[in-house]
Amino acid sequence: MRVHLGSDHAGLELKDHLMNWLVDAGHEVVDHGPFVYDALDDYPVFCLRAAEAVAAERAEGLDSLGVVIGGSGNGEQMAANKVKGVRCALAWSEETAALAKEHNDANVVSVGGRMHSVEDMTRFVEVFLATPFSGDERHVRRIGQLADYEVTGDLPPLPESALQGPGA
Q: At a CB cut-off of 8 Å and minimum separation 6, what does 132 contact?
């Protein structure tokens, strides 16, 4: 599988570790940077490129995934989610990494390089890459609502129960 990586200075060490780990695990890795430590670098520069590559390859039918890394992973997740077709989840445990794929069919995962040990974050990425999407109808429906909104900007219709209000 092709895996795209992007980070900022706070995620550089983990990105380099993951790149070697992923290659050893048989994955093809594309490193979108940074390539040197610069405490003033900007995560959108690198994370948007990683996310764009994932979206483009998935649009071509490839099974590419992405990993974005920063100090907390929050900004990197936000950047990746600005790319049309990307569903990026912040993983802070094995369970959140698995659910990102099982329920949300996430195609990019974000991890915080300053939040956990290298071993834990490697495990989160491993679980994310290995977990399949469940394909359950409710998850497919919800992902479809997000995809439709991304294209049209139209909000999904409210369910009948929400239109009745409290005590109705």
A: 101, 102
How many distinct helices (H) and strands (E) make up the chain?
7, 5
Split at pLDDT 50, 70, 90, the class of 122 is: very high
Domains of the chain, CATH where assigned? 2-134 (3.40.1400.10)
> What residue spans of 6-153 are helical by DSSP H?
12-24, 43-59, 74-80, 94-102, 118-130, 137-152
Catalytic positions are: 76, 103
Tokens of 45: 């520069």
**What is the token pair recorded at 124?**
């989160």
Peptide bond into 166 cis (omega under 30): no
Q: Is the pLDDT of residue 78 over 90?
A: yes
Closest CA to 108 of 123, 127, 86, 92: 86
> What was the pLDDT predicted at 164?
77
Output the six-digit token pair for 62: 């490839």
C-alpha 107 chain-centroid distance: 5
Model confidence at 165, in pLDDT bands (50, 70, 90)? low
Q: Say if CB 63 and CB 105 are below 8 A apart.
A: no
CB 6 within 8 Å of CB 105: no
